[in-house]
Design brief:
By secondary structure, the protein is an alpha/beta fold. Helix content is 51%, strand content 11%. The longest helix is centred in the last third of the chain and has 21 residues, at 362-382.
Length: 394
């Protein structure tokens, strides 16, 4: 069996995702499609509209063969951690031959060349990188400036457009740990990653989430045109939970040294966040007052979420260095036997029932414990009752 993998959030699953799965089936040369999907919380520091099992079912109903959970420790991290965590899991599966990702531009060769350039360790690169960070510029932005200054042949768009940035991180991770997995960039269609307005039929997930939050009847027809029928039928049940308030309470309840351990927190930012939280009543207000050259809105939201979940950067590093697991969320029923057999051929342990957790090594058990904790918190906020040991067959 040859498997093509895609790393995703599906928050929510929409027409662009369905189109991507169709393209993967056509272009990857693989027999099956594996989706490695974030759990109940996302990389932008938000709660997902639907729980992970519902989103996994949506994926299998619309073209995926198997959905595994991307562990929470990676799913709520920076683009680098998100990509490295995903590749750490996928590289342990011999059946995975291709990693597909959406992009705004660029070929496989261009992405690979850009990724190699960012992995440079020579003195000139390090010196220029250090110089570019002197004015408070973030590490990733300074790294981009350094690479483009030293490699005039590279396309700047690869480093500045959101999906391209993540694509480079996937290729970096593949070069470090990929074990022969080939990247397959696929051009996005319709709305861009950050576009907030609904389009005729290929709107971004951001635009769809905003429309769901508004709940305006006049937008229902347009929403219906942007998502598969099975997803549209459930959009009215999408979670509108008081997560921001819970995140603010968690920040004020934590000691500064606890917040400081969050993977995205550094340079004493925990103190500024807590000070702003005490003097400003709203989550959005705190974000606006803490945004800077080094700290983007998304990064600040991740710090809030990482603290809410109790994430520690040292633990995340350990998870990247040790065997983990394959947590199955959903599988195509008619192919379940062969797909689960493919997982059994990997280096990690498949998890499909409670008893499978027995035998996990310490780091894997701790990582899985974080997934369980995230689902418990999601259940409280959404008034749900999902079980960590479910496996949906479609």
């Amino acid at each position: 069996m040859r498997i093509a993998a895609v790393v995703c959030e599906y928050n929510p699953f929409h027409n662009g995702h369905k189109y991507q799965l169709e393209r993967i089936r056509e272009e990857s040369g693989c027999d099956k499609i594996l989706c490695l999907m974030s759990g109940c919380f996302t990389q932008r520091g938000d709660m997902a509209l639907f729980d992970k099992y519902t989103r996994a079912r949506h994926a299998v109903e619309n073209g995926a063969d198997l959905v595994l959970e991307l562990p929470t420790a990676f799913a709520v991290g920076s683009a680098e951690q998100f990509a490295r965590g995903a590749v750490h899991i996928l590289a342990s599966l011999p059946a995975v031959k291709v990693l597909c990702f959406g992009c705004e531009s660029g070929t496989k060769e261009e992405f690979s060349a850009a990724a190699r350039a960012t992995l440079s360790e020579d003195k000139q690169f390090k010196a220029l990188l250090k110089d570019n960070m002197k004015d408070g510029t973030s590490y990733v932005k300074a790294r981009t400036e350094t690479v483009l200054a030293l490699h005039k042949e590279l396309d700047e768009k690869l480093f500045t457009l959101p999906n391209n940035i993540l694509g480079i991180e996937y290729c970096r991770a593949l070069l470090q740990e990929g074990k022969g997995i080939e990247p397959l960039p696929l051009a996005r269609v319709g709305g861009g990653f950050r576009d907030e307005g609904l389009l005729k039929n290929f709107s971004s997930a951001t635009a769809i989430r905003r429309a769901v939050a508004r709940g305006e009847k006049k937008e229902k027809k347009l929403l219906k045109a942007n998502v598969p029928p099975n997803v549209f039928r459930e959009l009215e049940e999408a979670v509108q939970a008081p997560y921001p308030e819970a995140a603010m309470c968690a920040l004020l309840s934590a000691a500064p040294e606890e917040v400081c351990r969050c993977p995205d927190c550094s340079e004493g930012l925990e103190n500024r966040l807590r000070t702003m939280a005490k003097s400003n009543s709203g989550y959005e207000e705190v974000l606006e007052k803490c945004i800077s050259k080094r700290y983007t809105r998304s990064r600040l939201k991740r710090i809030f979420l990482q603290n809410f979940l109790g994430l520690d950067r040292k633990d995340v590093r350990l998870y990247l260095e040790n065997p983990l697991y394959y947590k199955v969320l959903a599988v195509k029923k008619k192919d379940a036997e062969s797909l689960l057999a493919a997982l059994s051929g990997g280096a990690f342990r498949p998890l499909t029932r409670k008893s499978d957790v027995q035998g996990l090594k310490r780091e894997a058990l701790a990582c899985f414990g974080l997934d369980t904790h995230a689902l418990e918190l999601y259940n409280v906020l959404s008034h749900g009752n999902r079980n960590e040991f479910e496996m949906i067959q479609v």
